[in-house]
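To: structure subgroup
Subject: Chain for Friday's discussion

All,

I'm putting the inputs and outputs inline so they're searchable in the archive.
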Amino acid sequence: MNDPRASPLLAGLSGLPPALVLTAGCDPLRDEGREDADRLAAAGVPVEYRCFEETIHAFISFAAAIPAATEALSFIASQLRAALHPRASESHS
C-alpha cells in the first residue's frame, strides 16, 4: 500500500513535533520503529528512541507482570511531563 496514513515511512516528516519512539527487542516491528526514528531525526524532528531489548510486542500492556513495562511507562510519563512542563522538569533534576 502506498498510502502514508497506513505506512508512516511514506509521509513527509519535516515540521513534525518532537517524537518518542519505543520498541521491544522481540518484536517483528522493531526494525521499522528504529527506521521511523532515524527518518524523523534525518528530517530534523527532535526524536528520542529507546528499545526495551528483553521484551515482546505489546509488553507495556503487561505492566503488572513485566518489570520493563513499568520502567517504560515511567519513562513515557517523564518524557511527556518534560514536554508539557519543561521548567517543572528542570526543577526535578
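Points worth raising on Friday:
The radius of gyration is 15 Å.
The CA atoms of residues 60 and 69 lie 4 Å apart.

D.
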